[in-house]
Specification:
Helix 5 packs parallel to helix 7 and helix 8 crosses helix 9. It is elongated, with a radius of gyration of 31 Å. The protein is 44% helix and 12% strand. The chain folds into two domains: 163 residues, Alpha/beta knot, CATH 3.40.1280.10; 65 residues. The chain has 249 residues and is an alpha/beta fold. Helix 1 links the parallel strand 1 and strand 2. Strands 3-2-1-6-4-7-5 form a seven-stranded parallel sheet.
Amino acid sequence: MKTRFILIETSHAGNVGAAARAMKVMGFDDLVLVAPRWPNVLRREETIQRASGALDVLDQARIVPTLDDALEGMTHLCATAMTPRDFGPPTMSPRDCFAQFTDARTTGAQPAGMAFLFGSERFGMRNEDVYRCHVALSIPTNPAFGSLNLGAALQVIAYEWRQALGGFSVQPGAAQVQTAAADAQQVAGMLAHWELALTAIDYFDPLAPRKLMPRLNHLFNRAAVTAEEIHILRGVAKAMLQTAERAKR
């Protein structure tokens, strides 16, 4: 399914760059500008800076004089309008709208091309442009403050649409080195070291040992400490012994 983002009469060059960036991170690259304020908006410094590397999207973006010129090949038009229009298309949240195209129970032909239309920053979309759309998308926001920057609004819709199309898997972090668990001999040596250290600082009484050391043994077994961690714990025990020795001087 083709996906196109159409910006109508955009007045701020930075928003064009932000739109390109938002599209690229969601894997889209078809951007059309209808009569933008700046004829050279795709090459303006602010546009390029806000694109943050999405220059390929800017390079293949098109500028056209009318909305009709931007709609070639698009069969399903989505307006973006926070305020429902009288006699206009139904208003839906992006997620609810996109569920229609991904719900396995839905039958019928899928649109050949999906277009998302965004109006100017100051006035939004004109009524006549909204009326020709199949749906008006309204992003659920704080009722007391629903103002969204153009780039932010496009990012939200691009994300929701990408998720509806199957989304991207979360990229794994850098592989962590898997260290083997310490063996029983290493644990026993560490516990013997700790017994000496705890005795030196008067925390452990060998004459009344009770169950402190077996409990510590059980704790470290449950923690599945590694050889590297054994080294750290023995370093702690060594520091306790040195501190106790200095205190006796």
